[in-house]
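call fold target=Phytoene desaturase
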Amino acid sequence: MADVARVAVVGAGPGGLAAAARLAAQGHAVTVLEQSQQVGGKLGLLTVEGHAFDTGPSLVTLPQVYRDLFAATGGPLEESLDLVRLDPAVAYRFADGTRLTFPGSPAAVPAALDAALGAGAGAQWAALMSRAEHMWRISEGPFLRTPLAGAATLARLARRPADVATIAPWTSLRGLGERYLRDPRLRMLLDRYATYSGSDPRKAPGVLATVAHAEQAYGSWYVRGGLHRLALAVAERAAERGAVLRTGCAVRRVVVTGGRGAGVELADGEVVPADVVVSDADAAALYADLLPPDLSAAPRRALGRATPSLSGFVLLLGLRGRTPDLAHHTVLFPADYDAEFDAVFGTGRHRGAPQPVADPTVYVSAPDDPALRPDDDSESWFVLVNAPRHEPGRGVDWDEPGLAERYADSVLQVMADRGLDVRDRVRVRVVRTPADLERDTGSVGGSIYGTSSNGARAAFLRPANASPVPGLFLVGGSAHPGGGLPLVTLSAEIVARLVGPA
């Protein structure tokens, strides 16, 4: 595109902000329209009685993606943020009492696995990670950094039969784990990476092992002061490049004139004209609510064939006192992981009837960061369990009176049963359900990642970055290449490339 384009970005989540920064740096006139009063979307911040909580992602992976973003739009990342590599990355506790502290240094991982799980565990994991590294090298460029193009995307991946054999698109993540990992606890570690895309490891593709490889090879990172500062830094960079950020501006519809995107209409009736519209809204909401039905039929059919991603039930806990030897991230595994996925997705023993997980995996993020607590004798915890999305009448109605508080009590009891009892230390307790996530971010049902990766064809049912409407593009976790901060940021890179410089 040779001329300066007026660009309207719908939503100031991480994808929308990254797209705004890149497009503004490319010389376009960018306006970002955000329905809430603060930027960040799921990368939010809540402060209660001196306790500050990130309300979304709790770590940064693939930091090079952000370094690329900041380098392309101005000064280096390190001038805007204090990024700290976590070591240890995470501490795991299994139902049989086994504890495993996962080192931040890849070289130390095999020995740590042998020490915790027995001789041979490290070699099994190393063999799997070698396969995952090969998968990563094959798939990163043609898939993660390139627009989705159906059969053409498959053709890029299939340049060599050996590459197809390595990716093994017919193999699930669970199946891949069973091939390499004899210890069921190791397989549980691998299964967890399916949840990074809101998916079921029994149905998600084995290529998701690349997530484990990337996290181990490139590290898990924390932004000092909280991850919300990442959103603020990208917003500031976009503004420095000339983008206008407007909060409290809900978008009612995308204006289509002459068959192409021509701007957006706000809830108050104001029309913001544009030559290009970039939507960071949930793709399901975009195609169901913001476009005329005749222009969105095909994407809605594709979304209807995909399984929505899981959601999350969150406790934000302000605690008195300090917990000795607590890692930045702690994962408390249940005895029966399959029961969790059956409950969340309404499959197996819970077929057709998703429900809150009785004995869930519990994720605790407890940053040792003075900026997030009122004093040195306190902690601010983000506690997450996988949950079915909000679906009144068909699934779980998270607005049912009393359900959220009862389930919060249940999660605290599960934590206590697994050796992390903090009930007598709680001075702040905030409950956030999938229904709250839907209201706060516009994610349909509170599905964190839009659609899941359940099924070999799932990636090709995910909405493409270039919509069927010329001039309308999609970024964010519900669009290609998927959810999670790195992929969301890559979606913005893809769209900026599609739009081109002024």
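return ok
The mean pLDDT is 94. Residues 121-144 form the longest helix (24 residues).
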